[in-house]
Amino acid sequence: MTRPSIETRKLTKQFGSFTALNGLDLKIEGAKCVGFLGPNGAGKTTTLKMLTDMIFPTSGECFVNDIPVRKDRKSALAYCGVLIESPEIYPSLTPMEMLDMAGRLRGLAPETRRARSEEVLAEVKMGDWADKKVGKFSKGMKQRVNIAATLLHDPQVLMLDEPATGLDPRGMAEVRDIVRGLKKRNRLIFMSSHILPEVTDVCDEVALINKGQLLFYDTLEAITRRFGDGHSTVDVAFARNVSDSEMSGRIAAVKGVVGAERLDARRIRLRFEGGVEEQSSICESVAALGLGLASFQESKSALEEIYLNQIERGD
Predict the structure, then answer these.
(1) Do residues 60 and 12 lie in contact, with contact meaning Cβ atoms separated by under 8 Å?
(2) What is the Cα–Cα distance from 21 to 137, expressed in whole angstroms?
(3) I need a surface site. Which of 62, 97, 127, 184 has the fewest CB within 10 A?
């Protein structure tokens, strides 16, 4: 098996006079998590449905693992796990019964179905609920069972359509944790979303789409450099209040830091030049100041500002 890949070439979809997707060229290769970002109505679900042959393009082509989806759907999707929108589960079934049904449709042998069902339920942290009726589950629990169904045949490519939409904060956090775990299994995960923290937390790369057109596709770091002010940003939190003199003096003087902005009494946003290596060095230097460093993470606001600016330009 070659490296997992997803590709669209001049992909276009029209519904009457409305153009939902307009000549989308996008190629993603390798094991990673890619966020497919855009506002509601941008064309994200339309793209996923054409990649999985649920609807047909007006023109253009889709490929999964270099196999054309329209010409050889069975081969192209054989190694794919797909969750489009939020399918409902028969409330009278248990997760094990639901997965057994999904395994039958996949053609898995009985012994394989049982073993894999137990494995994937454990993977999505639903093992304790394996024999409970789904009708009594919360929406977040049902979504975890749906994700388990996409993993049943151990797919190489995962396509998830806004998996956390409609969930409460706890359910959203649970889904993000699951996706982080899925990244460890050497899979290509293509996840559409309009929730920026979700993308920032779990994705390695981002493709932004608006009005059916691709605005950019790159790593989060490269996007921040390209569309930001030329600097990377990190948010630093401390276990105690940090004085203005400590911020403007000791912290701002750390090698590599080009600016420091107060977020609140204990949090400061640092701007710096460079990438991951420079970020690591700054983290070590700030920790060595002895000010009670509590956390150090990439700023989520950077992607948000870029997202809003790019969408507004498209409008």
Answers:
(1) yes
(2) 36
(3) 184
Structure tokens at 90: 């028969």
**Is the separation of the CB atoms in 52 and 82 below 8 Å?**
yes
What does the radius of gyration of the chain's CA atoms come to, in whole angstroms?
22
Cβ contacts of 36 within 8 Å, gap of 6 or more = 44, 47, 48, 190, 191, 192, 193, 207, 209
Whether the CB-CB separation of 62 and 82 falls below 8 Å is answered with no
Q: How many whole angstroms separate alpha carbon 57 and alpha carbon 47? A: 9
Map tokens 């904060």 to a residue: 169
Give the whole-angstrom CA distance, residue 121 versus residue 131: 11
Q: Which letter, b or e, does each residue of 255-284 get, where b requires 16 or more Cβ atoms within 10 Å of its Cβ?
A: ebbeebeeeeebebbbbbebeeeebeebbe
110-123 helix and 169-182 helix, angle to the nearest 10 degrees = 120
Confidence of residue 301 (pLDDT cuts 50, 70, 90): low
11 close to 49: Cβ distance less than 8 angstroms:
no
Q: Are 65 and 2 in contact (CB under 8 A)?
A: yes
Angle between helices 139-151 and 169-182 (to 10 degrees): 10
Residue 202 has pLDDT above 70, yes or no: yes
Query: Would you state the structure tokens that stand for residue 104, as one six-digit string?
Result: 């039958």
Whole-angstrom Cα distance, residue 57 to residue 70? 9
What global pTM score does this model have?
A: 0.78
* One-character DSSP codes across 157-191: EEEEESTTTT--HHHHHHHHHHHHHHGGGS-EEEE
pLDDT of res. 228: 64
pLDDT above 90 for 169: no
